[in-house]
Amino acid sequence: MLSLLGGVIGVILGISTSIGATYVVNLFLSGNRWPLTISINAILVSLGFAASVGMFFGYYPARKAAGWTDRIASL
Fold first, then answer.
1. How confident is the model at residue 64 (pLDDT cuts 50, 70, 90)?
2. How far apart are CA 34 and CA 24, in angstroms?
3. 13 or 66: which leads in pLDDT
4. Coil, strand or helix at 69
C-alpha cells in the first residue's frame, strides 16, 4: 500500500513536471505549440511496477527471516 502511494505521488509529480515543461517550451515557441500527451498506459504500468516492487521487497525479507531459527536475529 505504501509503495502504491509512492507510485501515485510519482505520477502526480511526473504529470505536473510535464505540464510545467510544456508551458515553458510553449512560451519560447512563437508559432507552433508543443502538445502535451500523457498516456494512461504509462501511468498504469508505472503504478503496477511500483506496487510489485513494494510487494517483492516486503515479502522477500519477511519470508527469509521466517525461516531462521533464531528469532532475535531475524528482527
1. confident
2. 10
3. 13
4. coil
Task: Name the residue type at position 58.
Answer: G
10 Å CB burial of residue 8 (0-12, 13-18, 19+) is middle
Distance CA 46, CA 41 (A): 9
Residue 2 phi, psi (nearest 5)? -65, -40
**Residue 11: is it exposed, middle or buried by C-beta count within 10 angstroms (0-12/13-18/19+)?**
middle
**Cell output for 41:** 498506459
Q: Give this prediction's pTM.
A: 0.75
